Amino acid sequence: MKQNYFLLIPIYLLSCIDATSQNIIHTENWQWAQKARCYSQIAPLDIINDKNGNQWITGFYVGDAQFNITILYNNSSNGYYDIFLASLHNGNWTSIRSYGNESAEEGRALCMDSSGNIYLLAEFFSDSILIEGNWFHNSSNSGEMLLMKYHAD
User: Fold this and answer.
1) Among 50, 46, 48, 10, which residue's Cα sits nearest to residue 30?
2) How far lies 17's CA from each of 24, 33, 57, in Å?
3) Where does the pLDDT of residue 24 fall: very low under 50, low under 70, confident under 90, or very high at 90 and above?
4) Closest of 140, 147, 145 to residue 120, by C-alpha
5) pLDDT tens digit string along 40-56?
6) Of 105, 119, 110, 48, which Cα lies nearest the Cα of 74?
7) What is the pLDDT of residue 143?
8) Helix, strand, coil shares, percent, the chain, to 5
9) Which of 11, 66, 134, 135 is the most exposed place for a label (fewest CB within 10 A)?
């Protein structure tokens, strides 16, 4: 089975991974690096830093995605995208969430307000999508925009 990996290294973060043991190696210049993997495709589309120094990443994945020990199962049986929202603290995956249904959903952009709330701008094509216990329905036969507010402590 084919595996795709992505490696996130914001410019001010510095680390490298030993490809044989996949352990974090601390060197003179690098602080850390982290990976997520997917058996089909994973695409990070935006990253921001919060007031606590955490990094928040959004994008989409096809197939099941793995962030350390957390596995996100794709909600589409048709090979479409699901949204992921993940955060890192000191180089470790902390909060990892997935949103999707039978069609394509993509996390497009992130921003943060002065109170530390994270806003995720997404696009969804499914007839409906479940976000934190609330159903949002697509009133068109094409993509619709979805803006989500997430309070990150």
Assistant:
1) 10
2) 5, 7, 19
3) low
4) 147
5) 899 999 999 998 899 99
6) 105
7) 87
8) 0, 55, 45
9) 11
* pLDDT tens digits, 58-91: 999 998 899 988 889 888 777 789 999 999 999 9
Residue 142's alpha-carbon distances to 30, 94, 139, in angstroms, are 44, 33, 9
Per-residue pLDDT band at 6 (split at 50, 70, 90): very low
pLDDT of 25 above 60: no
Smallest CA-to-CA distance from 153 within 66, 70, 89, 73 is with 89
Contact 60, 92 (CB under 8 A): no
The model carries a pTM of 0.76
Q: DSSP for 52-117? A: TS-EEEEEEEES-EEETTEEEPPS-SSS--EEEEEEEETTEEEEEEEE--SS-EEEEEEEE-TT-E
Paired tokens of 67: 């962030």
Dist CA 111 CA 126 (whole Å): 24
Taking the CA atoms of residue 45, residue 34, residue 69 and residue 73 in that order, the dihedral angle to the nearest 10 degrees is: 20
